[in-house]
Amino acid sequence: MKGKLLITILLALALGITACGPKPTPAATPASEAETPAAAATTAPPAPPSETVTLTVIMEQVPDYDIVAQLTPQFEAENPNIKIKFDAMPYDAMRDKILTSFLAPQATYDIIIVDNPWMDEFAKAGFLTPLDEYIAATPGYDFNDFVGPVREIGVVDGKVYGVPYYNYALGMIVRQDLFDNPDYQAKYQAKYGKPLTVPTTLEDYVQVGQFFKEQGIYGAAMQPQRGYKVFEEWKNWLYAAGGDLMDAQGNVIIDNEAAQKALELYIEMYKTAAPPDSLNWGFDESLRSMAAGESATMISYNWMLPTLNKPGGPAGDLAGKFALYEVPGGKAVLGTWHWAIPHNTPNKDAAWMFVSWLTSKMVDKQRVIMGGAPTRVSVMTDTEVWEKGFGKGYYETVLKILEDAEPLARGPHAEEIINEVGTYLNSAVAGEMSVAQALKAAAEKTREISARP
Amino acid sequence: MHPLLHLKYRLLAPLVLVLGAVIGYPLAFSLWVSLHNYTLTAIGQAKLVGAANYLGLLANPSYWRAIGNTVTFVLVAVGLELILGFGLALLLHHRATPLRHLFRSLLLTPMFITPIAVGLMFRFLLNSQLGIIPQALKALGIHVDWFGSRLALFSLALIDVWQWTPFMLLLLLAGLEALPTEPFEAARVDGASGWNMVRYVTLPLMRPVILAAVVIRMLDAFKVYEYVYAITRGGPGESTETIQYHIYRVGFLYFRMGEAAAMAYTLIIVVLILVIILFYVLRRSAT
Amino acid sequence: MISRRLATQAIILLILCLALAIVIFPYLWTLLASFKTEAALNRPLDWNFTPTLANWQAMLHSEIPRQVLNSIIVGAVTVLLSLLLGAPAAYSFSRFRTGGDGARFAVLLAQMLPPAALIVPLFLLMYTLRLLDTLWAVVASHLTFILPLVTWFLIGFFDDVPPELEEQAMVDGCTQWQAFYRVVLPTIRPGLGAAALFGFVLSWNDLFYALLLTGKHSRTLPVGIAGYWTFRGIEMGQMSAAIILAIGPVIIASFFVQRYLVRGLGGGAVKG
């Protein structure tokens, strides 16, 4: 018995060697392939499949996924011929799974979710199905109802490759009770000669941070962790100082004066007002520091607010005392997840039926009421959502944040640029490099990466 | 009978076949990849680039930093594990030690735990605000920035020490128990005791076991990945970017498989040299 | 004399207790964390919290129990295959010196190959064989380091068996194969046990391969634990419960096999 098993395995492995020699599997040219069903769809919305189709959807294990999973039985009840199977996994396992699915003759996944740094990379490599015709053929879909900057991430070279799933734009979350405290207000007034308000400029932010530090509470729970995290936080500072990664012509300007000022102030804040020794902190530690009542502000994902204010949640007795504002300067870093359909799935029509159902105005509203992060203007301005969700003020602020927000980087090498810039920024905060050195190195590296084919 | 049908080859054949499939084939494929500009997003356009991937590494500071970090990590971690493991083994071997078996049973447990769990446990134990260890140290007036740029790599090494000193202890204790008793009796007759006994009798006798234990631990420590993944992600700056993590990043985050494969190959060569040296020493001391 | 002996004992005891405290503290802390609410977790020094079973309930109703089972299956199959393939080969290396020192060296080298060098081809191979997201893919990847390791250990054990033993058996009418199978193999049973156990532990511990090769149906426990670290925060309470579930049984099991493991491992390493 054991011998038999062994032989089977040996055989399988030996066969694998011949079947999978070092011959590159050519990535199919999807553009032409994709035209056919899309063109067919111009006249009428895709018809439900006549035989039962099972769609496999790759997901990240996050609360937003749980919400989608809870909504899905409704879709299956309305479309008995389509079954949805989710494969939810940790973030770090996703990128390679999605990629192998693209490279295969037939996709493992009929629907994928795309993190914003991957969008251009996947679309330009020809891995995604253009959705314009599908959108046009879906009555009442109202694509333009998605907030502009969120919508734009799914558009590559004038074509739509993804529709929004949820947003993770950054905002400033503060302990409102501290800002409202008359004692602090009086002290602040006495010291700086102006009232204590939620800061709207970098200089004020640093000053307020230092003020709270003097009162025995850390001014800002920062996230200077190497890579994505530090860049995600600092780029808000960069916008506030008038800088950017690239200018409108695509020239790298991350080493200009505005950037230097932004990084100097960021480091000053870290050194004088943030919790000490928090160089490796990501959003999780920042959130915990806020929840534990140790810090007065943080720049983090807008939907951290309901988490913090949830009665019986991580913040305990402090629940209800947090409020969300736009980041200083007003322009925020935008993160999004989009739904997309791989070029090599045979079930494109069915896939679009599910995606368009899920992101339709009606279902999206349900999703947001259940706690999902919003993407549609109509949903964020809906009184029912305000009542059943987290209140009018929250959605209005989120909408304001989303309307003036931009992703960390675009282009086919965004993932690498973000990681490399984030490494230099973290070096500068750690004091391993000077501000000028770090920004110069980041700029050079970004140019080098962007120049690659 | 054909000489290749001799029992010794027949006994070996299944092993060779399976290792050929799960190691030989991947190694050959990796070598091929390392000679091409093989990017997962554009496999169809992979072109032969000869040694360019390898030559590129020479001028790649991140790569050298990762190698340096890994070597430092291995030396610090395995060095401490050896000292602590040997000390504990001597104590546990001591006949007068009470509750030896209980102590040993409990002290050996960390090596059974999955490293990702260890990494995540320590991420929070050592967290500057939320962790119990820094809080307790603060109460004693001691301030340590565990994951700052100066100490981060060392802290990761300490976590490795927590988890893998038991392995060292296990091997060294076994070695001690297997030692012949005569040399000790002879030394005792000559009046040796305590430290001298350890220095002049135990250590020389234990050399082969120590070397074996060190080799195994070093080889394993070179693959360090989980602690970096769970705690620092290579930061601050690049101060904890280890080679395995760096290869993972270039290969699976940026999809530049050719470059990643070239790095992996240089790593194989570095470790190969190390194993040759240690194997040679091991052989010599065994005869 | 007696007092000096007592003093020595006291010092030894003190050092061992300190070491023990360092080893056990993270377990106890994690155990404690598994009974805390999210709010209590954020205030580590606040001892005045109401314990909750919510984390355990949530964890036991998640996919973790199934992942534990997956990990056990992968470890057991990998070890079984390693013994089946490794024992005869180790015997050949030891008794006939097949391949000489070079072969032993190759076996040693094989187990330390960086996983990063093997993962991509293994990934593509498993894909081609339609084995991704099956436990077989994980088993194959774990064989890359456990098979050479087990073989290497067993070479040492076979080296310890006096040749007279099988010579006697062959005089008694056994073939060489029978001598190996009926006489030599049973004498190194402790060695087989130790190698198996150690191989199992390494398989149980692996994150790197499992993270990249598994999917919904085949996720192993380390991947499950890493999965608590999500994009929306770490679910520390549940993660702590999962960690306790993962390490508790292993720690208890280790008490029963350690004696045996110490002897086995020592035998393999001493002779190298």
Strand order of the largest sheet of chain C: 1-2
**CATH architecture label of chain C:** Orthogonal Bundle
Enumerate the spans of chain B where pLDDT stays under 50 for 5 or more consecutive residues.
none
Into how many domains do the coordinates of chain B divide? 1
Which protein chains are joined by the largest interface, and how many residues does each one contribute? B-C, 97 and 95 residues
Q: Please give the largest β-sheet of chain B.
A: none
Q: Could you name the CATH topology of chain B?
A: MetI-like fold
How many domains comprise the coordinates of chain C? 1
Share of β-strand residues of chain C: under 5%
Summarize the structure.
By secondary structure, chain A is mainly α. Helices cover 49% and strands 12% of the residues of chain A.
Overview of the structural elements:
The complex is a heterotrimer of chains A (453), B (287) and C (272). Chain A is mainly α and 453 residues long. Chain A has helices spanning 2-19, 30-40, 63-78, 94-103, 119-124, 132-136, 148-153, 176-179, 182-192, 202-214, 228-240, 257-272, 283-291, 304-309, 348-358, 361-369, 377-380, 383-388, 392-403, 414-430, 435-451, and strands at residues 53-60, 82-89, 112-115, 155-156, 159-160, 163-167, 170-175, 297-301, 322-325, 332-333, 336-340, 405-406. Chain A has two domains: 35-168 and 335-406, Periplasmic binding protein-like II (D-Maltodextrin-Binding Protein, domain 2, 3-Layer(aba) Sandwich); 170-333 and 413-451, D-Maltodextrin-Binding Protein, domain 2 (3-Layer(aba) Sandwich). Chain A starts with a helix and ends with a helix. The model of chain A is unreliable at 1-43 (pLDDT under 50). The mean pLDDT of chain B is 85. In chain B, helix 2 (52-58) packs across helix 12 (257-286), helix 3 runs antiparallel to helix 9 and helix 11 (243-253) packs antiparallel against helix 12 (257-286). The longest helix of chain B has 33 residues, at 61-93. Chain B has a single domain (64-286), classed as MetI-like (MetI-like fold, Orthogonal Bundle), CATH 1.10.3720.10. The two termini of chain B are 35 Å apart. Chain B has helices at residues 7-34, 52-58, 61-93, 100-107, 115-125, 132-139, 152-178, 182-189, 194-221, 226-232, 243-253, 257-286. By secondary structure, chain B is an all-alpha fold. Chain B has twelve helices and no strands. With 272 residues, chain C is mostly helical. Chain C has a single domain (56-271), classed as MetI-like fold (Orthogonal Bundle), CATH 1.10.3720. Helix content of chain C is 78%, strand content 1%. Chain C is built from 13 helices and two strands; from the N terminus they run H-H-H-H-H-H-H-H-H-H-H-H-E-E-H. The two termini of chain C are 41 Å apart. Chains in contact: A-B, A-C, B-C. Chains B and C meet through helix 1, helix 3, helix 4, helix 5 and helix 7 of B and helix 1, helix 4, helix 5, helix 6 and helix 7 of C.
